[in-house]
Type III pantothenate kinase
Amino acid sequence: MILELDCGNSFIKWRLLNASMASVGWGVVDNDEALVDVIRLRSVGLSQCRLVSVRSDDETAALVATLENTFAVTCSVVSPARELGGVTNGYEQFERLGLDRWVAMVGAYSLAQRACLVIDLGTAVTSDFVGADGQHLGGFICPGVPLMRTQLRTHTRRTRYDALEASLALKDVAPGRSTAEAVERGCVLMLQGFVSGQIAMAADLWQQDFDVFLTGGDAALVTSVAPSARVVPDLVFIGLAIACPTV
Ligand SMILES: Nc1ncnc2c1ncn2[C@@H]1O[C@H](COP(=O)(O)OP(=O)(O)OP(=O)(O)O)[C@@H](O)[C@H]1O
Ligand SMILES: CC(C)(CO)[C@@H](O)C(=O)NCCC(=O)O
Ligand SMILES: [K+]
């Protein structure tokens, strides 16, 4: 079995593949200890681990050491590259491009084999443009819903509401008539406006000849403004397999 990990700033997403590369389990945890606990229950036959991380080098090294010591596996870790899977990193300093963005676009290009716009909606929202020839033109980074919400709560005094109100607020996006509706709907509309703008930018560059990929925990919030987008929740893992092939 292979353990795949996508180590973000807020969450670690994990997935287990069997010998036929079929997913036999997955989940989301919010710290290293919780990850070890959940994998320990399923670690029989674990032979390899591969991971992509946007955490600090020290944090990533600590997680790798824990996994290698606890489960007696070797971990392959994605490192920055100028070129991978036909995609050329477009950053002036290629090693500074977030590795989650990098493997997501490598995964998207492997599926599309033509120009693609890759949007990852998580804690942060990122968008990346890859041309038909695999050249990464660059992209954008903005706060995602969790960050927008927390910034509002932190910097204003009267925008509070509870989780129940929040969960009821998104039944539609009409003008809000309570604080919860006003904030929750406002954040979703910010996300949708951003995604619409990105698709318009891609259409300026490539007319109709491109694919839009959506991934990340909040992808479902924007599908209404991107009806032809391909929603691929495991896009990072698809790219991860290309970056760290089975040994
Ligand atoms: N099971 C889940 N666990 C955590 N977040 C979830 C889950 N399902 C949906 N979400 C939503 O996904 C968003 C987080 O997205 P995602 O899991 O892609 O985070 P992320 O960008 O990977 O975060 P990071 O990479 O910084 O850890 C949150 O806004 C949350 O509302
Ligand atoms: C933007 C995030 C936080 C999204 O997870 C990550 O890709 C990252 O830390 N990137 C480094 C900065 C950059 O990509 O330019
Ligand atoms: K992410």
